[in-house]
Amino acid sequence: MSGAVEARLAELGLTLPQVVPPLAAYQPAVQSGVYVYTAGQLPMVEGELPLTGKVGAEVTAEEAKELARTCALNALAAVKSVVGDLDRIARVVKVTGFVASAADFTGQPGVLNGASELLGEVLGDKGVHARSAVGVAVLPLDAPVEVEIQVELVQA
Q: Is the pLDDT reported for residue 156 higher than 80?
């Protein structure tokens, strides 16, 4: 473990997972200048999706909110894979979340609060960000939620 961010994760009882391997032709995260952009992160836990289906049908909003937390944790792991130390994060700039939604489900912002709240718990003020929460018909592997983040790094 290295640094204050990972110590905070440990205080919260969280472990940074291994980076989820790409499902297709992309990288989990890339750095451009002082920014790191993650690919969309599914709520994979040890290589498996804990739940599948549409939010508001097979998956409850509360279950999906927890899955969004997992997505954010996976996104932090992807950032670390590129920069080596999460203490290099100056701030989370943007979070984009996708919720596979039943036709009448309109609670996407509440679901994505799971990711936003986790980033705030772990990073404090550095975790405050802009965000988009989008309802979609289907996500890869029938995942209920997917989250991507963009972070700015401390300039050396």
A: no
Radius of gyration of the chain (CA): 15
The percentage of the chain sitting over the pLDDT mark of 70, rounded to a whole number, equals 99
Residue 153's φ and ψ, nearest 5 degrees, are -95, 155
pLDDT at 2 over 80: no
Angle of helix 108-123 versus helix 61-83 axis, rounded to 10? 40
Instruction: Give the integer Cα–Cα distance in Å for 85 and 72.
Output: 16
Domains of the chain as residue ranges with CATH? 3-18+42-153 (3.30.1330.40)
Structure tokens at 144: 């209920």
Query: What's 91-136 look like in SS3?
Result: EEEEEEEEEEECCCCCCHHHHHHHHHHHHHHHHHHHHCCEEEEEEE
Q: Which residues contact 68 (CB under 8 A, 6 or more apart)?
A: 43, 97, 111, 112, 113, 114, 115, 118, 145, 147
